[in-house]
C-alpha cells in the first residue's frame, strides 16, 4: 500500500496558503473599524461585512483541502484521517453558522469547538508505531504538536477573556493546524522514497 497519494501534497500545501491569503485579503477589504489584533477571523464572515464572500470561499476551500488530504493520507490510522476530514467538514459548516456581527452565537461556537478539537486530536489518533513509520506519524512529534495546539487554544481563551490579542492568537493556532498536515504528508513521501531506494538496492544486490 502506498503511504500517501501524490496529490495529497498539493491539497495539504494549499490549505495554509489559502487560509493566510484568505483572512489577510478579507481583513484588507474590511471596514476601518475592524481590528485584526483583537477581533477574530469569524467576525469577517458576518453577512454584512465586505470580507464575507472572501472568507466564506476560504473556509470552503480549506475544508475541502483537509478532506482531500485525509483521503490521500493512507499511512495514517483511519481514526486520525476521520478527525482530519471532520475538521474540514467543520470549516465548511462555519459558512452555514457564521458569527454574528455583535455578540455571540452558540451554534457558531459549537462548530468552532468541534472543529478545533478534531484538528487538535488528529495528529495523535493518526500515529503509527515502529521505526518504519514516517516521522510525522510517530508518537512523540504528534503528541508535541497536539499539545501545542491545546496550549494555543488556552492562549486564545485567555486573550478573549482579557479583551486582548484574540485575533492574533486565533490566527497563529489556525495556521499551525493548517501547516501540520503538510509536515505529515511530506514525511510520508520522504519515507516512501527511502523505502523505494532500499527495495532497489536489495534487488540490485540480488542480481
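^ C-alpha cells above, recovered residues below v
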Amino acid at each position: 500500500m502506498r503511504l500517501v497519494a501524490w496529490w495529497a501534497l498539493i491539497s495539504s500545501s494549499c490549505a495554509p496558503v489559502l487560509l493566510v491569503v484568505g483572512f489577510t485579503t478579507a481583513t484588507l477589504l474590511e471596514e476601518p473599524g475592524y481590528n485584526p489584533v483583537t477581533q477574530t477571523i469569524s467576525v469577517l464572515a458576518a453577512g454584512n461585512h465586505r470580507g464575507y464572500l472572501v472568507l466564506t470561499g476560504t473556509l470552503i476551500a480549506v475544508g475541502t483541502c483537509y478532506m482531500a488530504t485525509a483521503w490521500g493520507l493512507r499511512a495514517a490510522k483511519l481514526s486520525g484521517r476521520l478527525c482530519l476530514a471532520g475538521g474540514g467538514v467543520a470549516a465548511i459548516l462555519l459558512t452555514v453558522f457564521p458569527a454574528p456581527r455583535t455578540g455571540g452565537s452558540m451554534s457558531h461556537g459549537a462548530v468552532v469547538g468541534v472543529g478545533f478539537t478534531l484538528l487538535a486530536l488528529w495528529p495523535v489518533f493518526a500515529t503509527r508505531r515502529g521505526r518504519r513509520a514516517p516521522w510525522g506519524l510517530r508518537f512523540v512529534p504528534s503528541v508535541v504538536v497536539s499539545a501545542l495546539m491545546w496550549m494555543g487554544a488556552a492562549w486564545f481563551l485567555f486573550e478573549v477573556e482579557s479583551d486582548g490579542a484574540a485575533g492574533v492568537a486565533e490566527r497563529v493556532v489556525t495556521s499551525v493546524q493548517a501547516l501540520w498536515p503538510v509536515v505529515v504528508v511530506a514525511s510520508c513521501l520522504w519515507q516512501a522514497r527511502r523505502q523505494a531506494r532500499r527495495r532497489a538496492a536489495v534487488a540490485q544486490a540480488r542480481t
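The longest helix spans residues 166-206.
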